[in-house]
């Protein structure tokens, strides 16, 4: 036990801006700075020296590695080298938050071996919350994505978010904006799959009265409305070549011209884009401009599919079900068998499909408990090991597979397929034509 921290050590760790703690070989806290105390709800007079680290940050009665986590304390003591991990900690109110921990060996004043842990907060539950709560989870795949989103948020470079339909690219874009220096500015969203020709120019750049037939009044475009903030271009791979050239000019110069206007305006905009298409392949095929691609894809981030983070499915399903119950005035719960079935399901439509499955199950549930039958999932469960061992397919292959599976399930009806994939019927029709699907 260490009844009082060494004054020299305490002065050194107090100089750290973020939460910092020193821990001995028995997981006991030797010293902690004020930021660490505040992060975990410990008052200035509340004893912390001698408490075990996992009691404070994990609210556990045993070390986290016993639950299968990558414990930085254990790894540093084993290797005597620096080790960085992504973890889920719990704040003073018991809310989960994602953190990055950098642990490194420290020699104490008496020569004893210690571990110093510098903690960087990535996101709390409230930061990743939205109507569909799609970024809930503690899986390594999700934590890696959140860590990278947090790092790049501080830059003004273009970010391209990649991933299948329904993985939460829009929420990831909002997360980047909320963690950026532009967080107090506007966040504007453009669904590029719905725009072409004059409609694109009108929505993005605005128009003056009489700019085209039926045009009444002046309209500010979303590029102008995003001044000082972030413009999120969703489904950017759907933009026709002619529109790509106009977008590139605006991004390079920061200037735009409303339809029918004589003078150009300017806006300071940070652009985040997203697609489920392979833009690099489109560049090679000549269907996407190379110069625009490099402008948008300064930083690319791949968001994991639900298959790649199956361990998050139970928590995500419960959170979505809570929202659905609140909206419908119902009180349905998931049986353990239903949770197990959901965790083994492939989810070609990702979180959007999970939400739709739960909404249907609530409508069909008569006894308050959702069983496997109410889920309506057909076919055999897919072993998780199969996906861990297989080579990752391309985005194009994943999209084709998802569409084919949903077409079979909904017997070729386009509307429910489009809803499950989170896209318009018009966009789905173009994809069916591209892949040669009837």
UniProtKB/TrEMBL annotation:
This entry's Gene Ontology molecular function terms read: ATP binding; sequence-specific DNA binding
PROSITE patterns per UniProt: SIGMA54_INTERACT_2, SIGMA54_INTERACT_3, SIGMA54_INTERACT_4
Which Pfam family, giving just one, matches this sequence? AAA_lid_14
Q: Where is the Sigma-54 factor interaction domain?
A: 135-363
Q: Which GO terms describe its biological process?
A: regulation of DNA-templated transcription
Kindly give the InterPro entries that the UniProt entry links to this protein. AAA+_ATPase, AAA_lid_NorR, Homeodomain-like_sf, HTH_Fis, P-loop_NTPase, PAS, PAS-like_dom_sf, PAS_4
Enumerate the UniProt keywords alphabetically: ATP-binding, DNA-binding, Nucleotide-binding, Transcription, Transcription regulation
Stored PANTHER family:
TRANSCRIPTIONAL REGULATORY PROTEIN
Q: What is this protein called?
A: Sigma54 specific transcriptional regulator, Fis family
Q: Which organism is it from?
A: Thiohalorhabdus denitrificans
């Amino acid at each position: 036990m260490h009844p009082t921290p060494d004054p020299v050590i305490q002065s050194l760790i107090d100089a750290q801006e973020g939460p910092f703690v020193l821990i001995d070989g028995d997981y006991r806290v030797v010293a902690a700075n004020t930021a660490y105390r505040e992060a975990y709800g410990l008052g200035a007079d509340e004893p912390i020296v001698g408490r075990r680290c996992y009691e404070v940050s994990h609210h556990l009665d045993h070390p986290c590695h016993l639950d299968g986590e990558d414990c930085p304390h254990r790894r540093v003591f084993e290797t005597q080298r620096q080790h960085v991990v992504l973890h889920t900690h719990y704040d003073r109110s018991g809310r989960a938050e994602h953190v990055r921990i950098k642990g490194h060996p420290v020699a104490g004043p008496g020569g004893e071996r210690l571990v110093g842990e510098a903690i960087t907060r990535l996101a709390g539950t409230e930061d990743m919350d939205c109507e569909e709560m799609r970024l809930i989870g503690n899986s390594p795949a999700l934590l890696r994505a959140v860590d990278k989103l947090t790092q790049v948020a501080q830059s003004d470079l273009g970010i391209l978010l990649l991933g299948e339909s329904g993985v939460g690219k829009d929420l990831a874009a909002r997360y980047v904006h909320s963690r950026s220096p532009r967080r107090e500015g506007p966040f504007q969203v453009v669904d590029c799959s719905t725009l072409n020709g004059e409609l694109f120019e009108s929505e993005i750049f605005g128009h003056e009265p009489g700019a085209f037939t039926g045009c009444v009044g002046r309209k500010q475009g979303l590029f102008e409305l995003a001044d000082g903030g972030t413009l999120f271009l969703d489904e950017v791979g759907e933009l026709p070549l002619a529109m790509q050239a106009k977008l590139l000019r605006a991004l390079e110069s920061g200037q735009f011209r409303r339809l029918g206007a004589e003078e150009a305006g300017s806006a300071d905009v940070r652009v985040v884009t997203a697609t489920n298409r392979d833009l690099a392949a489109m560049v090679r095929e000549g269907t996407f401009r190379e110069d625009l691609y490099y402008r948008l894809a300064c930083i690319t981030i791949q968001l994991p599919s639900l298959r790649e983070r199956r361990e998050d499915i139970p928590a995500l399903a419960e959170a979505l079900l809570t929202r659905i119950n609140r909206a419908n005035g119902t009180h349905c719960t998931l049986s353990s068998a239903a949770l197990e079935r959901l965790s083994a399901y492939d989810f070609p439509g990702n979180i959007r499909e999970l939400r739709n499955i739960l909404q249907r199950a609530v409508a069909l549930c008569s006894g308050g408990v959702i069983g496997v039958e109410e889920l309506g999932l057909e076919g055999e469960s897919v072993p998780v090991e199969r996906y861990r061992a297989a080579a990752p397919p391309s985005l194009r292959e994943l999209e084709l597979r998802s569409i084919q599976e949903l077409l079979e399930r909904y017997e070729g009806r386009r509307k429910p397929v489009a809803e499950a994939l989170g896209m318009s019927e018009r966009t789905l029709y173009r994809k069916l034509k591209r892949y040669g699907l009837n």
